[in-house]
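Exercise 3.2. Students should predict the tertiary structure of the chain below and write it as structure tokens, then compare their answer with the key that follows.

Predict this chain's 3D structure.
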Amino acid sequence: MIPWLDPGEPFPPVREALCEPNGLLAAGGDLSPQRLLAAYPRGIFPWFSEDDPVLWWSPDPRMVLFTAEFRWHRSLRHSLKRARREGLDVRLDGAFGRTMTACAAPRPGQAGTWITDGMRACYADLHALGLAHSVEVWRHGELVGGLYGVALGRMYFGESMFARASDASKIALAALVRLLEAEQVPVIDCQQHTAHLAFLGARDISRDAFCRHVEAATQLEPVPWSRYRGMNLLERFDI
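Answer key:
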């Protein structure tokens, strides 16, 4: 059994999350910026389907990407060289809403999406507050890849990515890694284990270690995200 949260009711301790399914902590509550800002610094995130109540998770272990451990595979380096030759732009916060919508599109073999209309509206509110950011890959004015996530202090919580061109999501992630390295942000939260992220260098750490890091990192001075808007991140960081 998990607790049902009434609006405004605090989260239970993450140590009370279920082992099966791994990390399920609570259900209910409101999906609002205030609720999300209470969740993320505690290592909690929402994840649910269209017909489900709001479900809150804190899995153990937790997959993270240490920016220093990002794997610059030869194939990715070739894709980055091709991107520069073809004049691709990698931008910050140029189309946050469109990036979320693209991430919400059903993937092959999936019947639906967890990025519901309510989720898109709530994260759009966080973006308006300067607390959620997207990295987009543009080809001749067409959005062909990107990612988005929540940024608090010196912590970036990755949410989702998409690609409509070969390696476009990896290029977006590579640009984000370079930006975060420049701002001394060592960890990207990946939430749950995937083979794709493991291939790029992400790995599991204990929930306790993750929560200790997040508690400290979210209290630090925020990254000056506005500094990077309007520039091609491929050129800014010579990726």
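Discussion points: The CA atoms of residues 24 and 57 lie 5 Å apart. The first strand starts at residue 4 and ends at 5.
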